[in-house]
Structure formats: structure tokens, C-alpha cells
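Researcher: Batch entry, complex prediction.
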Amino acid sequence: MVIPGRKSDTRVTEARGASIDSAPTGSPKVGSPEGGSAKIGMAASAGSPEGGSAAPVGAWRTATVKVVDHPGPNAVRLVLDVPDRIDHLPGQHYVVRLRAEDGYTAQRSYSVASAPHEAGVELFVERLPDGEVSGFLADGVQVGDQLEVRGPIGGWFVWRGNSQALAVGGGTGVVPLVAMLRHAVHIGRPELLRMAVSARTYQELPYARELLSGGAIVALTRGVHPAVTRAAGRLAAADVLSLITSDTTGFVCGSAAFADGASTLLVQAGLGADAIRVERFGATGS
Ligand SMILES: Cc1cc2nc3c(=O)[nH]c(=O)nc-3n(C[C@H](O)[C@H](O)[C@H](O)COP(=O)(O)OP(=O)(O)OC[C@H]3O[C@@H](n4cnc5c(N)ncnc54)[C@H](O)[C@@H]3O)c2cc1C
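Model: C-alpha cells for the complex:
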């Protein structure tokens, strides 16, 4: 899709995560052939229930926007029709590329909220202040528009629906968890997936109603809401203690700060560092 009025002197690269596979490289990897450090999971673990066969990867496609709605003033939900779509696994993401008339491009990653069985690829984008791509997607996209997308992407932060999982998400970090929830319900195995999610307010929690009805523990850090019974405050180890079994894989997704805090509390609650997979959204250090 062409971005009107874009100048080519702004950044082209992603804040993070433009690569084919979001699993970072170069770090010691828990459970991987070269692993052994206590660093929380960064690469596919051979032999784990979720490891093994490769996750699907798709090429660039021109998608048509089928649905645009605004669940809140700073968010947009897009459903895309992707031709020759390769079914994703819950947890994977797509890259969206915007292109200006002068050839300038900007691309960002967005997790898929829809489950593999759904017809469209659903994305949920939060508009960031001065956000180059999120601002355009939130305000400038209409039904019938075409978007360049590449996906599915990501071979590490994926849940195949065949093992016990505890998914912990903060803010838009809940988006891939929604795909996991929908998939668990679709395959008739909702008991495999436990969820704990957090946002400042109920209004800022994407898919709040769906997550609550799926049994997620919801922690609101700056507000109360009649639908949320838990007292306001950050997620704590006590929230997740009873959700962990000996064969649980943890999936943590959100800002870098959220991901670090949530990973720590999962370890405090008894989950091994090598059983935790982390997806960080946003600028390094945010
Ligand atoms: C694997 C992956 C999946 C993602 N999935 C989603 C998703 O489902 N929904 C979603 O809304 N976003 C998601 N993101 C984040 C998304 O890729 C973009 O980083 C985000 O939309 C901001 O892009 P922008 O061009 O609007 O902002 P930019 O123009 O790049 O940045 C604007 C300002 O915001 C800061 N910033 C950039 N990214 C973030 C961020 N994520 N949080 C806080 N501050 C930031 C920058 O430092 C800068 O100050 C995902 C990121 C990754 C790596």
C-alpha cells in the first residue's frame, strides 16, 4: 500500500523483529544443541514438545483488507485476506510493509490473533505516539485496501496445541495468546492452555472479553473494572503458581520490560528457565 506524503529521510528498519524468524541469534540458547546457559529461552529446543518440525514460513503477498474496526481510540483490528496463504501456527507473526511513491519502505511485525483454521489473518495494532507504521495502519487503512505482507514468520514462539502451556502477555503482547486460545478451543483442548495477562486498564487490554471468557487471569495495574475480580496490581508469582505443571512451557509476550518481569516471576513460580519462550515487542530497551 502506498503511504501518501511519506518522505524518504525517515527510518526504514523495524524497531525490532523484521527478520524471517524472530528467534534472536547470537545468545546462548537453552535446550538448543549449543545451549546450556541459564538464559531464558531464545531458540527452538530440539526434543521439547513444541520443538522439532519447522514452523511454516510464507513469502511476500499482496493482502486485501476485509475488516477494519477500532476497538479503542488507539487501536485497530484488521482482518486480511492473504492469497495462497500458508497456515500459521499460534504465536507466529506477519511483517507488514508500507511503501511510499518515492520507493521508501517501512516494515513492522504484527502477531496473528486469528487461529489457523480461521479464513482471514487478523492483526491488532496499537497506535504508538509518532509511530510511523502503527499510526498509518490505525488511521489510514480502509476495507478494500491492499497491503504487502510476509508471513507467517517465527519458529520459536509457537504453540502447536499438543502440550501444556502457560501464556503470559502484557498489552498488545496478548495478541499471539489470542491465537493460542482460539486454537485450543477449536481443537477441543482448552485445558492445555492457561493464561495470565496484564494491562494498565481494561480498555487498554486487547481482546479483554475474549481472554476473560477463556479463563485468563487479568491483572489491571492502573484501574478496576467490574468484569475483573482480581485486585488491581501487577502480575505476581502467586497468580501463576497453580497454573504450572512439571511439563508446562511458558510463553511470555510484551514489551521488553514486561517480558523480563514476567519471565522472572515464572521462574520464581517454579518454571525452569529453559521452559520459557519470550517474544519481545517494541524498541530495544523499552
Ligand atoms: C514479533 C513482533 C510482533 C509484534 N506484534 C505486534 C502486535 O501484534 N501489535 C502491535 O501493536 N505491535 C506489535 N509489535 C510491535 C510492532 O512491530 C511495531 O514495533 C510497533 O507497531 C511500532 O511501530 P511504529 O512504526 O508505529 O513505531 P516507530 O515509528 O518505529 O516508533 C515510534 C516510537 O515508539 C517507540 N516504539 C517502537 N515500537 C514500540 C513498541 N512496540 N512499544 C513501545 N514503544 C515502541 C520507538 O522507540 C519510537 O519512540 C510486534 C513486534 C514484534 C517484534
